[in-house]
From TrEMBL:
Belongs to the acyl-CoA dehydrogenase family. The keyword Methyltransferase does not apply. PANTHER family: ACYL-COA DEHYDROGENASE, BLR3437 PROTEIN. The keyword Flavoprotein applies. It holds the Pfam family Acyl-CoA_dh_N. Residues 124-217 form the Acyl-CoA oxidase/dehydrogenase middle domain. Its cofactor is FAD. This is Acyl-CoA dehydrogenase family protein. SUPFAM superfamilies: Acyl-CoA dehydrogenase C-terminal domain-like (SSF47203), Acyl-CoA dehydrogenase NM domain-like (SSF56645). Gene3D superfamilies: Acyl-CoA dehydrogenase/oxidase, N-terminal domain, Butyryl-CoA Dehydrogenase, subunit A, domain 2, Butyryl-CoA Dehydrogenase, subunit A, domain 3. Keywords: FAD, Flavoprotein, Oxidoreductase.
Amino acid sequence: MPDRSFLDWPFFEQRHRDWADKLDAWCAKNLPVDHSDVDTACRDLVARLGEAGFLKPTALDTANPGPLDVRTLCLTRETLARHDGLADFAFAMQGLGTGAISLFGTPEQQQWLDRTRAGKAISAFALSEPRSGSDVANMDMTATRDGDDYVLSGEKTWISNGGIADLYTVFARTGEAPGAKGISAFLVPADTPGLEVAERLDVIAPHPLARLSFNDVRVPASAMIGKPGDGFKIAMSVLDVFRSTVGAAALGFARRALDETLDRAGNRELFGAPLFELQMVQGHIADMALDVDAAALLIYRAAWTKDMGAPRVTREAAMAKLFATDRAQQVIDKAVQIHGGDGVRRGHIVESLYREIRALRIYEGASDVQKVVIARQIK
Ligand SMILES: Cc1cc2nc3c(=O)[nH]c(=O)nc-3n(C[C@H](O)[C@H](O)[C@H](O)COP(=O)(O)OP(=O)(O)OC[C@H]3O[C@@H](n4cnc5c(N)ncnc54)[C@H](O)[C@@H]3O)c2cc1C
């Protein structure tokens, strides 16, 4: 039984506890799903999560506008990740893909949000390029003004939901200034002529992922999100909201690894007693529990601080993401060790957690980058 005591922490309100309970019950009935065809699985997950109302926190409610509730986003990712990494992915991308529209979109652009929140449209966030992953400001893709339109040319890579998305938030160089100040954001529907999937990318924990070509993709000037030259600032504001939620997904994976380990150590007999009785195993389990609680404290501190109205939570979110993802990797590694040979058997839950966790230390700012961010924030 997963530890639920953290829900009593003062970071949460009763509505958060009720949401976590309702979602957990839904997950127990509906997850995990079959991962053999990730496109079909993700489309289906988005539709079902939407139908059940669980995608509502991912974007602005146009009928009742207000800030995104980061605690609900984190609780949802933690819970979904504990049950099924692909369900967490499907949820997370609906938020990341539309974050710029929620925060900076025009009312016309925000009409998309009713569909993404209902699971009727799938969204994606297209920032990274072959030459600019961590070095975002160095992007090559251009958006050139042509009359009432912009024409987008270049490539994006590592785009989650690439190939199945209905809309992309795309960042491109508009050239108001060199570097970070010359980038703008655009809402590009997937069926816009010239937008093509150049390559599908396969990774150790597969999900829909692609390299995209933009071959003179023409969009009206009204497709720009925010002002010309504000794209970098917009991308960072979106990551400021969603970065802690990556930590929350890692926390969900770590909690699952700990639960599986407690179960295994309690039931596996070794040298005439349960594995749990070996003190070295107890040492590992204590380290795992400590990492889980410490990660949860950092994540929900960051989420609470943002929800209380802090304009930016750069330091808190970087700490939460760095610690939770790095430590989850260690927690899961220990879980694999305590499971012995079963831990590396393809299809075993801890084997899949071992694969699922790895990319979280790379995307939305690699661990090394988070360290640079934290150091600069406390200088
Ligand atoms: C599974 C997955 C899904 C993704 N989904 C998306 C998506 O939906 N949309 C999107 O736009 N992008 C996405 N990405 C891209 C992701 O954000 C980039 O991979 C990430 O920013 C790293 O960029 P890079 O791969 O080009 O590595 P590089 O930028 O080449 O960095 C390589 C390594 O160098 C080190 N490093 C980098 N900068 C520093 C620094 N300042 N100080 C010290 N060390 C440093 C880090 O260890 C880093 O991992 C995804 C990536 C993966 C793996």
